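Dear Dr. H.,

I hope your travels went smoothly. While you were away I took the liberty of generating a structure for the chain from your last submission, since the lab meeting agenda had it listed for discussion. I wanted you to have the full record in hand beforehand rather than looking at slides cold. The sequence, exactly as received, is reproduced here:
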Amino acid sequence: MGMRALLSRSDGSDEAVDLGAWRKRPLKQDELLWIDAQAPSGAERDLVTGVLSLDAATLEALDSDGNLPDARVLGDGVLVTVQTIDRDIDEDPGVLRVVVGPEWALTWHSEAIEFLDEHRERIQDRREVGSLTPVLFLVAMLEWHLGTFFEVADQLEHDVDDLDTAALRDDQRDLLEQLVTMRRRISRVRRLLSIHRDMYSEISGPDFFPEREPRETDALEAMTHRLERATEAVANAREMLIGTFEVHMTRTAQRTNDIMRLLTWVSVTLLPAGVLAGVMGMNFQVGFFDNPSVFWIVVGAMVVVAFATLGIARWRHWL
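The corresponding predicted structure, in token form, is as follows:
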């Protein structure tokens, strides 16, 4: 599908490299070669193998079907596998394999990964990328990877804020369905982030890079803390969603109370009229029943009692 190579130097200069015309030579200490291979063809695989002198074990690991996050030490360097998340959270995660060796790094993936393209453009300024060790460059890539989860967490919080606004409106017919959908999205992001915890812990352990420099140790520790912050950011979106659900339930209960109060006062208002109608309709003979004007007196009494009931309710602030 495509293959790109970038040679960075410690003086801040970068050079796009054509691997087909690359004359194999040892890389200098102030140089770092990054090769990005997206669904490489057979010829491109052979080209990368020749330029980096990859052994069979490394190629087998790159072609592995295992998609879970993992970190292992190979003969050519170290291999780290991560699952990537796109801004469209509902899309299936991608798989990125990163191999770092002496003065070079190889990224291997079957589909386009947005954050790699973005940071490839960013580092082509005057940043002294060539002065980074392969371990520090690996840390930088993993920082880019974690940065996507921070972006997704911000997006989730923004969506939850919109649901908060919807929860305060009167029309909430499909809000519960939206809340359930949002909960599933947040849970999906949490699971995707949590499965990387062991891998990040593995590469930051003292046995993974036993001869690392102090600055590499500091960078690995900072990366672990960044993973924790990313987890907290996603957890915060979940807490916000719980708050939105509580607002929704409160509004639902309030509407139910309003309806019940209205029905109660309709019943209270009509009850005296029902009592009068029942009494006047009893089967007994009283002299004033023969007077037709009594009907209008009873109707007037019903109206007066109804308005008196409503007046008392307004006076006591029950309505």
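Two observations you may find useful: Strands lie at 2-9, 14-17, 31-38, 70-73, 78-84, 94-101, 104-109. The domain at 1-131 is CATH 3.30.460.20 (Beta Polymerase; domain 2).

With kind regards,
E. W.
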